[in-house]
Amino acid sequence: MASILCEAGLLPGALTHNEHHQFVCKNVFIKADNNDSLITASIPLDRALKIPIAHGEGRFYADEATMSEMKANGQILFRYCDEEGNITPLSNPNGTLDDIAGICNAGKKCVWNDATS
Q1: What domains lie within the chain, and their CATH numbers?
Q2: Phi, psi dihedrals of residue 5, rounded to the nearest 5°
C-alpha cells in the first residue's frame, strides 16, 4: 500500500528493499515525531508504541530537498525507537532514512506506516 502511494505521487519519497535485502516480520517500537496531525495529536511524544511490521521493501528514501521540505512541513509522523523511546540505529529494522517509520503528505491527509505496508 505505502509503495503504491509513493509511486503514485500521493506521498513523497520512495520505498526500497530493506537494507539487508531480507523480509522483516516482527514487533518494533515507534514514537510520534510531532503532534501536528490528526493521527498523532493525542500521542505523547515520549511514548513508544509497539507495532507489528512485515515487509521486504520498507526502507524509506527521499532526496535531500524532499527531506528538508518534509521536515519543515512536519510530514514525518513516526520514527523507529527502542522500548524506552530512544531513537537509535539499532531500533531501525530496515535501514530507512532518518529512522522514519511513518509519513504523510503536505496536507496531512494520507498517512503511511509499517503497520499498513
Answers
A1: 2-116 (3.40.50.880)
A2: -65, -40
